[in-house]
Amino acid sequence: MAQVPTREGTIPFKIPKYDVPCATYYKIFGDLASAISPLVVVHGGPGAGHKYLLSFAGLWPRYGIPVVFYDQIGCASSTHLPQTAGDGDFWKESLFLDELDNLIDHLGLRGGFHLLGQSWGGMLVGSYAAKRPRGLQRLVIASGLASWELSMKGIETRRCELPEETLQTLRKYEQDGDYDNPEYKEATAMFSKKFVFRDDQSPPQMLMAGLQNLAADKTVYGTMIGPSIHVPIGSLLGWTSIPGLSQIIAPTLLYNGEYDTSHDIAQIPYFEHIPKVRWVTFANGGHFCHLEQGLRERVFTTVGDFLSQGNESH
């Protein structure tokens, strides 16, 4: 990144009924004391860490919007809790909502802030905004999912767009539970090429950092999702944000890619229930369209222009 963070550190995070000292790592680009409300960026995975979203740090030099990134508990530079692997009662949405509240309070942002969540982060910020948190001004749901049921329907729809031979390979090895088979890995790589990161070039280092975080510690992802997005058997089963979406009062930008794994079917409830919402689908884009060569600038300016409409002194 050309931009240099102006501040970084850790925030103590007390988890109720869990007597282990924990901390949330954060990184800030820009000056939180400026008159422009900051953007808090919430990453996906769960467990990917913030680095794959660092392109949004450019909102500071171009738009004057300070940007706060953080690593959610259990991954990257925040406290890891491998002893909780498989504990679905521990790894649930409320833990991450509490962590986000703790971050916002610690950094003194209640006077005004924006939120952007990507993928799982989009799911999280939708639920958070439905609580009408004090200070939230504008919301960006980037390739989010309104419910886990609709997420699974969207993934299956995408899988059925693969060549029949590839789809049967996925189904065969999933039935066998053989997720490490080279043929299965080749089939999932084809899925990723079509729907996750669609560039012909190699994934940028930012994205590789997120994938490396997921590979290095599977505690959170493995517990909440399962072995992979193709085998969603984790604690997010049954999750939905739909009942609360009508309670969101912040103006909302909703976006996804044309070929996104976050299929349109999982966006429709956001569009139908959030009172003030604009939906943008980026042509030819995948799940990480904010990093794809032909779309990076369009995604960036769409987000920057939207947030600038709501920049108020805080």
Automatic annotation (TrEMBL):
UniProt-listed Pfam families: Abhydrolase_1 (PF00561)
GO molecular function (one): peptidase activity
Record key words, sorted: Hydrolase
One GO term of the biological process aspect: proteolysis
UniProt keyword annotation of Hydrolase present: yes
SUPFAM superfamilies tied to this protein: alpha/beta-Hydrolases (SSF53474)
InterPro entries: AB_hydrolase_1, AB_hydrolase_fold, Carboxylesterase_BioH, Peptidase_S33, Pro_imino_pep
Domain AB hydrolase-1 span(s) in chain numbering: 38-292
Stated family: Belongs to the peptidase S33 family.
Protein name per its UniProtKB record: L-amino acid amidase
Organism: Lachnellula suecica
Gene label: laaA_6
